[in-house]
Amino acid sequence: QINVLQAKKKFEILDAMLSFMHAQYTFFQQGYSLLHELDPYMKKLATELDQLVIDSAVEKREMEHKHALIQQRSVSFIQDFSYDDSKVEFNVDAPNGVVMEGYLFKRASNAFKTWNRRWFSIQNSQLVYQKKLKDVLTVVVEDLRLCTVKPCEDIERRFCFEVVSPTKSCMLQADSEKLRQAWIQAVQASIASAYRESPDSYYIE
Questions:
Q1: Angle (deg, nearest 10), helices 2-85 and 177-197
Q2: Any idea what the Cα angle at residue 98 is, between residues 96 and 100, rounded to 5°?
Q3: Strand partners, 164
Q4: Can you give the residue ranges of the PH domain (predicted)?
Q5: Residue 108 near residue 115, CB atoms below 8 Å
Q6: Cβ(193)–Cβ(127) below 8 Å
């Protein structure tokens, strides 16, 4: 019986190993069959992937080109704005009495110190503004002859200047340094013009 068991044990072990090898073969054969069916799809996907890589590279170049164009346009805009800015002029002898006009930011006198954009003008020796076109004029300074104007550098905003009267002061901001200088010169010219047009007895009084 021992000899029989020994002989039987040999072919049973071999049979188990052979069954295991058949199972492995069947597993990989089924896997191959499944992946073989997917082979056309995988080839198509690989081709699409190659095209996506090319499209991505093209899109990257286009975006870089657009970015460069935007930078050039920004520089051109600044240059154009500066060019238009240089043509800002004032006329104390304007037929309509308006020495100069344009948009300025005005700092409110409330506790919040908010800034609002208004349409300002110098006319009839006064500094006035409107919230909207055709609105009633709001007088900021009734008589420019009693005022002084000066640029302000120690402030949180650029291109600011201040018009100071005996009763109050008005902080204003222009859109550029040239516009600020133009407004300051316009106020000073209006003050000088108003003095020239008024008789000496007026100042004595």
A1: 20
A2: 145
A3: 148, 169
A4: 97-192
A5: yes
A6: no
Contact 103, 120 (CB under 8 A): yes
**What residue ranges do the domains of the chain occupy?**
1-84, 98-196
For tokens 């104007």, the residue is 149
CA pair distance 79, 73, nearest whole angstrom: 10
Name 91's Cβ contacts closer than 8 Å, sequence gap at least 6: 99, 100
Token pair 């120690």 is found at 154
pLDDT tens for 107-145 read 998 888 899 999 999 998 899 999 877 788 999 999 998
Residue 197 exposure: Cα atoms within 13 Å on the Cβ side: 11
List alpha helices for the chain, DSSP H.
2-85, 177-197, 200-204
pTM of the full structure: 0.54
Q: Which amino acid is at 73?
A: R
